[in-house]
């Protein structure tokens, strides 16, 4: 009598994703998420470009409280949206939020273009921010959970690099519209056209399945297997015919879960990094068009300069994508933040237009490289049951900083340039120290699927 072969061991999701390999599915997911990320960049940054026209249309004084409110409204919405949508995606799944946030972003973006007054415009921008605030935690969790371990860091930086494309697009669009319309009319076209890429992104997202990790964590093994089978078909590979290894039942997930055990240290340090980097980045770049305008540049030249600075972001991302896999996430993040701190002081010392442009380009290069490394590092530090909750929380800290940054950045226009840039430099330096204190390198590591033990690394 011949003994039957023992059943093959259950397959962990990480191992399944690694076996299915990198192929058309991941590249398509990158293009789809990247398109939406570029559209979000346009939505986040366009008020800086639209503000001169809005001020002309509604008679707003330069640096006024109303102008600052308009710049802050989108970020305030993102603050609320990041926490809400991130928590919801861990409870009901990634895909529903993946679709809903993009659809709502388009609707509210178009409403802003038609706003009859400042109050309605501020409300529309708040709601737009609330919608797009959810794309950050969900898109990065989806990308991290579908990409093989060896490629995960690079793909997360590649996704963040679409921010530069959105920045280039909004600068080019603002420049083009300024040649056809008076400023008091051009801003409506800018807001309306910036909302339209989201329509394409929404249609493209309909073909993406939910994350198999999220499905398995919620007890839906058959749906998780079907999601992996779709990856296999797209990549021309085969999913082994064995059960998927289900993670142990997770406790009820609340935002308080992020502050238990080893997660507490990671959450606090990451929150400080996201806050400091965001306060400096948006404090500089949300007011930069108005600052350049105040230095005597005509509006077309301001937009051309902004376009050049956006182009400087691209090599920052390219280098970050290389470094996160060669030297690691933590070292790359800390290095870029240190260069950003130095760049802020060089900007302060710039005494000629060429020096201002050069130091601004250095800041643009370094800051966006730091963002790329941070977006690769953060989702790998949170386990699956709280990944989008964690991403939502730390990104909400960035949005809190973004709400404050226009008020701080307004000092650029009111003669306190040294105070503002010293603060921004200090923010980048503190963020660098926090990045080093995390003390964990995730390069080449499997994504954690269970909550970390109290004494975990």
Automatic annotation (TrEMBL):
Task: Name where it's found.
Answer: Membrane
**What terms describe the molecular function in GO for this protein?**
transmembrane transporter activity
Entry keyword annotation includes Transport: yes
Per the record, the domain of life is Bacteria
Keyword DNA damage among UniProt keywords: no
Q: Which UniProt keywords apply?
A: Membrane, Transmembrane, Transmembrane helix, Transport
| Family matches, as InterPro entries | MFS_dom, MFS_sugar_transport-like, MFS_trans_sf, Sugar_transporter_CS
Q: Name one GO cellular component term.
A: membrane
Q: Where does it mainly reside?
A: membrane
**Membrane-spanning residues where?**
29-51, 63-85, 97-116, 122-143, 155-177, 189-208, 268-289, 301-324, 331-350, 356-378, 390-413, 419-438
How is it placed in the membrane, per its record?
Multi-pass membrane protein
Which PROSITE patterns does the UniProt record give? MFS, SUGAR_TRANSPORT_1
Residue ranges of every copy of the Major facilitator superfamily (MFS) profile domain listed in the record: 29-443
Alphabetical list of PANTHER family matching this protein: SYNAPTIC VESICLE GLYCOPROTEIN 2
Q: What is this protein called?
A: MFS transporter, putative metabolite:H+ symporter
Q: Which organism is it from?
A: Deinococcus hopiensis KR-140
